[in-house]
Amino acid sequence: MRKALDTLYAGSGALAALFLVFICVIVLLQVGANAIGKVAEWITGTPLGIVVPSYADFTGYFLAASSFLALAYTLRHGGHIRVSLLIQGAGPRARWVVELWCLSLGAVAAGYFAWWAVNLVMESLQYGDVSAGMVPVPLWMPQSSMALGLVILCIAMVDDLVRTLRGGMPSYEHTSADLADSFEDAPTDEMNASKPPRG
User: Fold this and answer.
1) I need a labelling partner for 97 at 20 to 30 A (CA). Which of 49, 60, 89, 181 fits?
2) Hey, is 138 helix, strand or coil?
3) What per-residue confidence (pLDDT) applies to 112?
4) pLDDT at 192 over 70
5) At residue 195, what are phi and psi to the nearest 5 degrees?
6) pLDDT at residue 175, rounded to an integer
7) 65 burial via Cβ count (<10 Å: 0-12, 13-18, 19+)
8) What b/e string do you get for 34-43 counting C-beta neighbours within 10 Å, with b at 16 or more?
9) 36-73 pLDDT, tens digit each
10) Torsions phi, psi for 130 (to 5 deg)
């Protein structure tokens, strides 16, 4: 089960990265089209007006897909911004209770948004909604990536909640601890060498 969940989170993160690549490709294609149009205008005096159809719409869809599909992966790797000022000085028991509260609230919120995102996809399928750009895109397609990302985020929240209930450390805490350890384990000679000499 653990391996399957970790594969799910990693796959979601990989898909998010892939959509970023798609954004780069579309932007480069449009920049290339603009450059060709400018060169043609200098030579012939008439711009070609080459445009990647609905490129702004597609980049927006891909950005939304990348953002939502990366949520669970980012959570698991401690990449989300956390305000931990209140629990820094708390004891282990109090910190455990606060972590449980935050994870429970996060799981409920993610589940709520996932539920409505899935409903939105179903409605778009039912009514045949399409985008209003040059290329009519069925709206359930970009909405599906948002719904999928939220569902996986909800699973990740519940995963960490169960792990914390069993007395373990949330995944994002492991990542933060590993990062702190990497700084502590840095060779002191290298760190001292980087300091400027005193007077």
Assistant:
1) 181
2) strand
3) 97
4) no
5) -80, 145
6) 56
7) buried
8) beebeeeeee
9) 888 888 888 877 778 888 889 999 999 999 999 999 99
10) -130, 160
CA dist 96 and 81 (Å) reads 19
* Residue 197 structure tokens: 């000499």
CA distances, 111 to each of 88, 98, 170 (Å): 28, 20, 19
**Of 24-28, 169-173, 189-193, which range is least confident?**
189-193
Q: Is the CB of residue 133 less than 8 Å from the CB of residue 183? A: no
Rg (alpha carbons) of the chain, rounded to whole number:
24
Q: Does the model's pTM come out above 0.85?
A: no
Q: Is 136 left (phi over 0), alpha (psi -120 to 50) or beta?
A: beta
pLDDT of 119: 97
DSSP character string of 94-122: HHHHHHHHHHHHHHHHHHHHHHHHHHHHH
